[in-house]
Amino acid sequence: MAKLTNARADAPGRSRRPEEGAGTLDGKKPQKGSRAGRSQSRDALMAAARTLFTQKGYEATSVVEITQLAGISVGSLYYHFANKSEIFLAMHEDYVQRQDKRVRDALHAVKGAGVTEPRRLFLAGTRAYLEGVWEDRDVSRVLADGETPSGFSTVSRQWGDAWTKRNAVLLADGQSETATNAIATAISGSVGAWAKDIVQLADISAAHEYIEHAVVLVGRVLGFDDSETRAG
Questions:
Q1: Count of Cβ atoms closer than 10 Å to residue 18 Cβ
Q2: From residue 12, how far is each of 48, 52, 136, 141 by CA, in Å?
Q3: How far apart are CA 150 and CA 154, in angstroms?
Q4: Mind listing the pLDDT tens digit for each residue in 14-63?
């Protein structure tokens, strides 16, 4: 099981205007024209947007502010993104990919320990997902606060529906499809609500305690004793 930390995964540095000559948040100039340079520029823009969306909110952040913090021209931004909304969607996609990797890694670990029962795999994935919410709590908070681009609610709903369907596959255990879907929807909805709570917690101890209780509750729904679901 991944260990919770107080550090934010991939968290950018403090928001400040780059010093003259700085090209990115880490002070390195991208090499223009090269593939590495283009990738570095995109990463700098994403890091700057993540910082500003976290500190100021999506609506209050301007494209100019993003480019100033990244140390990149507005023209370069439009090479990578059509507008600010597209940057936000890219941030969401990166977040989803990190969460998917955390869950895959958790499932790989428990399978390596000999666990194959689908409900136990589901519990491991749930714990990893909620721990990821804490690790990426700055982005999680931005995504949860409701201040998002027009159309993002549709993207979020589509992702949520797909996530619930994947959960239903793991939870199918000789029950009817209707019963399985009901359980998957209830648990997925609860996990989403818990994520909004987790990002507001004060420290790692509170996050760990909250996640532990959440996983125990999911275990009860799936028919496990509390002792079987607590982290060892």
A1: 18
A2: 7, 10, 11, 15
A3: 9
A4: 333 333 333 334 444 445 555 655 778 999 999 999 999 999 999 999 99
Does residue 94 contact residue 12 with C-beta atoms inside 8 Å? no
Contact 94, 104 (CB under 8 A): no
Q: Which two tokens stand for residue 96?
A: 């989803």
Q: Which residues contact 22 (CB under 8 A, 6 or more apart)?
A: 29, 71
> How many Å apart are CA 149 and CA 85, to the nearest integer?
6
Q: In this structure, what token pair is assigned to residue 190?
A: 């609860």
Judge whether 155 and 190 are in contact, CB under 8 Å.
no
Q: Which amino acid is at 64?
A: V
Residue at 25: amino acid letter: L
Fold (CATH) for 89-229: Tetracycline Repressor; domain 2 (1.10.357)
The span from the CA of 199 to the CA of 207, in Å, is 8
Asked whether the beta carbons of 68 and 18 are under 8 A apart, the reply is yes
CA angle 200, 141, 86 (to 5 degrees): 175
- CA 120, 122, 128, 134 torsion-angle sign: negative
Domain residue extents for the chain: 89-229
CB 167 within 8 A of CB 188: yes
Dist CA 181 CA 166 (whole Å): 10
pLDDT digits (tens, 9 = 90+) for 98-122: 999 999 999 999 999 999 999 999 9
